[in-house]
Amino acid sequence: MQLTHLPTGTVTFLMTDVQGSTRLWEENASAMRVAVARHDELAAEIVSANQGHLVKARGEGDSLFCVFERATDAADTAIALLLAFAAEPWPSGISLIVRAAMHTGEVELRKADYYGPAVNRTARLRGLAHGGQILVSAPTHQLIKDALPPRATLLDLGEHRLRDLLRPEHVFQLGHVDLVGEFPDLHSLDQLPNNLPIQLTSFIGRERELAEMKQLVVDSRLLTVTGTGGAGKTRLSLQLAADLIGGDGDGVWLVELASLLDPMLVTQALASVLSLREEAGRPLRDTIVESLRSRRTIIVLDNCEQVLAACAELANAILRNCPGVKVIATSREALQIAGETTYRIPSLPTPNPKLNLAPEELQGFEAVHLFLDRARAADPSFALTAQNARAIAQICHRLDGIPLALELAAARARAMPIDSLASRLDDRFRLLTGGSRTALPRQQTLRALIDWSYDLLTDAEKIVLRRLSVFAGGWTLDAAEAVTADVETLANPAGSAFAIEPFEVADILVSLIDKSLVVYERDRYRMLETMRAYSAGRLTETPEAVLIRDRHVAFFAQLAQMARAGLRGAEQRDWLERLDVELDNCYAAMEWGLSGGTGSAEAAGLAAGALSGYWSARGRFQEALYWLRRAAEAQGVRPEVQTFARHRLATILSTKGDFTEALMVQERLVHDARDLADDLRLGDALSSMAYALFCAGRLDEAREAAMEALEIARRMGSAPAEGYALTTLALTAMQGGDSGSAWEYGQQVLTARRRSGAPRPIAVTLANLGQIARARNDVKGAHTLFLEAVALAMQTHARQTLGHALEGLGACAVTTGHYPEAARLLGKGDAILRELDVHPDAIDRHGYDETLAKLRASIPSEEVATLWAGGASMSDDAAVRLAQGLADPIAR
User: Fold this and answer.
1) Whole-structure pTM value
2) What sign results for the dihedral spanned by CA atoms 343, 348, 349, 354?
């Protein structure tokens, strides 16, 4: 029996659609008209027979949207529908294969239709399914698991991310013995390549905008989504990207640009998302284009406005060279390049408060819907009533339907009566607009709300909030205490003294979180970007602005110095991950310190030098060069700090293979040291220049510089400089074919470095000596040296040395005829070095080509490839055990 009234409260939705219907319509439209008519007849009969109600189509004309008071009726209907469709004799050449999804939740009924998260979640769940498959959410599973239809089954498919970007859903498959039971993996975000983040709040409304934007992406390869601050550009674009991701494409990749200040870093940001590294002698943009040339993917460039020109250039290069790539950009203004389509996000529809609409009528406005959802998140007991309906309508109307403004206002709903909220907001608008509520842009309406929120804070909250604005990309509690708490009393804008004690900071942060001005997640705090910009403006109005920024520089300069030491030891991975998170703060600190006019230049210069190890490990050479060049030339940086930055700059340049500029930097260091008659600096500079000369192939000059450096190092008693100079002498001897002299120099290096006691340099030297021993045909000695190098490399997490030593062990195994073990060790070593994007020098790869040729001549090439791949996938520990197992056979 057909229901005469649509059910409300908690209901179960059933949604279906036909697999491949677009193709079927294109191939045989006349047959499809007959088939779809029969599809609709069968659906109406079965849904009605099971106490369900057909609401309307959701999607194409062949989809069904059904609602049931009982989940068991929905389950009966789903199975009956698929059984009927499977048994139906469809017109010739047509076979309608249907997928279905069921979800139970509370509903919002407006104008004979359903809205809200439960409806959207059902549709997203249906999007995971394959033709012939019925998917069931966890809430529905709980209601039907003990009352299944005859011969029905339930299969646990685990948790999957739906395309609404909220929490994962535990998904089950409802089956039947007469239906297909096995299907490919679900089309969930977990199974598809993407880096779309889980969102903390539900996506409200915007169905029309989403539909329009999807069509624009079909028709255009660049869609720029524009709108005022707080309009919801990012959230809408993320949902669009999630909806567009397909199982046969190469995914969707989000590039977050909000924290970038320098346009030069835009390309690096995309490269990092795509896991691409810079290649020596090749622009990074060319590497990106080449990687994307044959891919079908969507790139989302989020928050382009502050680096607009760089985003436009990058998008233009991609569009012109990568035909399968589409770009979605969010910005407050268009990129203005050929082929661009812009879409300005309108405000959410708002009610006219003068109409005194009833609560059920107000719910039809998306601004009200959003406000209610966020107010309930702050206070679950909050509800739209006849008493507060007009005030809510006023709030939504006065805020012009701007999502961020609505969310900030909704957070206050738990702290004051809604009438008071509306009246205070109205007063603030009149103050800012001089009586005219429509004369100024929406951005000023948003500022009015933030002004009002700020004015409601205590003095302590205001001070901490504006001081927190110096952080980029979030902060930890210890960072907040170091930067915002007072060692000495500072004056606030009113001129009175007000000090923040360190122990107060945590409590103030909790208060700011409660007021939705700060967000806490995964042990970090952050501000919305609009609020951060607002607070930064407030900070500049105070006499403490320079001091607070200098504190920020000091904190992150100290962190960088700690990381420099940590990156050399067993905690390398932990420090790399920590710097990944704090990189935006480090860049903001260096930007301030190196811009001049502050007392933080020296600290910023030290930070740049200290971060060079991080940049090298991560392959972020463009960023390294940018900051080291600035540090090397910045005003206010002491000469010895500039020397340190130039030294690290030259090292990075050599690593990248840019020996010409590396030598220019080193020659300047040598020249400055000679002018100052500073032998200690001169020895260090000559050691570095000697290595750069060697890398450039200028062996005689390298040998001459290294000999002078060695003499100075020994006279000054500098063991590190002595080791560097001797290493270059060993390299030049090895390159010149004099393995005997190379061995003697190498032994001296080992003696000097054992004297210094630093395990990492010792490991490097042992690996170098292993290569020299192998060149002298001392395979047993080489194997012993490589094993000792491996042990130290594992102990100190020196992965570059580990890779070189494993390759050396593989070469020893080739020499002694242990070919399978050799292929696996060489594969592992090669994998590590590729991971690090290392550019090896001559001693690292001495005889490497000959080793590979002998290996490939000894066993079939297919076997080499299989063993090589197996070695590449081995753990470090397994590779070491394999090498250790060869010690006795090689010794014999």
Assistant:
1) 0.64
2) negative
> CA–CA separation, 855 vs 810, rounded Å?
10
What are the structure tokens assigned to 575, written together? Answer: 């420090």
The answer to whether 6 and 72 have CB atoms below 8 angstroms apart is no
Tokens of 343: 């879409």
- 436 sits in the region (left: phi over 0; alpha: psi -120 to 50; else beta) called beta
Condensed to tens digits (0 to 9), the pLDDT of residues 715-750 reads 888 877 788 888 889 888 888 888 889 899 989 889
**Residue 528: count of CB within 10 angstroms of its CB:** 18
What is the Cα–Cα distance from 566 to 574, expressed in whole angstroms? 9
b (16+ CB within 10 A) / e for 575-608? bbebbeebbbbbbbbbbbbbeeebebbbbbbbbb
What DSSP element (H or E) covers 10?
A: strand 10-18
Please give the structure tokens belonging to residue 84: 């009927």
Q: Judge whether 811 and 851 are in contact, CB under 8 Å.
A: yes
State the chain's maximal CA–CA distance in angstroms.
Answer: 102
DSSP code, position 355: G
* Nearest alpha carbon to residue 35 among 99, 101, 77, 88: 88
What are the structure tokens assigned to 278, written together? 């810079």
CA dist., res. 123 & res. 156, Å (int) = 20
| The predicted structure's pLDDT at residue 353 | 87
d(CA 397, CA 352): 7
Give φ, ψ of 108 to 5 degrees.
-120, 120
Banded model confidence at residue 495, pLDDT cuts 50, 70, 90: very low
| Phi, then psi, of 700 in degrees rounded to 5 | -65, -45
Q: What is the DSSP letter of 737?
A: T
Cα 438 to Cα 40, 272, 399, 429, distances in angstroms: 50, 44, 11, 10
Rounded Cα distance between 14 and 129, Å, is: 13
Cβ contacts of residue 63 below 8 Å, gap of 6+? Answer: 15, 16, 17, 18, 57
SS (H, E, C) 365-420: CHHHHHHHHHHHHHCCCCCCCCCCHHHHHHHHHHCCCCHHHHHHHHHHHHCCCHHH
**Which 3 state secondary structure label does DSSP give 527?**
coil
